[in-house]
Amino acid sequence: MKRFVLVMALCLGLSSAVYAASWSAEDLSQYSRQEIEAMGNKDLPLQIAYWEWVKAEADDRYAEWEPLVLPLRAQKQDLENQIADLQRQINELRAEINRLRGAGVSHLIIEGECLWKIASYHYYYGDGTKWPLIYERNRDMIRDPNLIYAGDHIWVPVPLVSRYTVVAGDYLGKIAGYATVYGDRGRWPELYEGNRGQISNPNLIYPGQVLDVPRSSRSGY
Fold it and tell me: Pseudo-torsion of CA 134, 139, 142, 144, nearest 10°?
């Protein structure tokens, strides 16, 4: 059992006497911190021994817990790294959401069109009741949704498609001209080349066929 020894020297004139007082940990544990602090200047050797015992207990506890704490610190760092990575992914998703909210394809208004009609086109929404989506996307240029003008360009908030289902009246040039495809009828050969497995004659396509829409780096899509 540990004993806490305090060596005291008493000087009486030219002579000195040395004695040692000791307390076991069990002895010291009988005292509370409040009792020791209340002693004031009394029993100083006991108070010193008590505080040395408290420090020794703390040192032992530290030595016992340190091997357990080190792996936890490593786990903490790993968790912080994971949190940072998740936050990065969240920021990227938020940026993508904002990009999609502001995305769209350009539409040239022609004579006789209204927002309802534009929304009803099969290559946009296929549903005229969704015209408010177009209106909200173009509030900076459309004050009255009932007044739009031929020759103006507006944004239709729909994504570019990666596949397209042929409808009656379609041909490759017409499909390539849809804003959600290429917005350029002259790019029909890209559709043809990307679907050679199911199109033997570029002049013959059929309603219901599902065509892949190749995206090339040169086009920016």
Answer: 90
- Considering the entire predicted model, what is its pTM? 0.51
Domains of the chain: 1-102 (no CATH), 104-159 (3.10.350.10), 160-221 (3.10.350.10)
Round to whole Å and give the CA distance between 157 and 135.
10
Concatenating the DSSP letter of every residue in 50-69 gives HHHHHHHHHHHHHHHHHHHH
Tell me which DSSP letter residue 117 carries: H
- The CA–CA distances, whole Å, from 209 to 164, 172, 189, 214 equal 8, 12, 17, 16
CA dist., res. 173 & res. 211, Å (int): 13
pLDDT single digits (tens) 80-111? 899 999 999 988 888 776 666 667 899 999 99
SS3 at position 16: strand
**198, 206 Cβ separation under 8 angstroms:** no
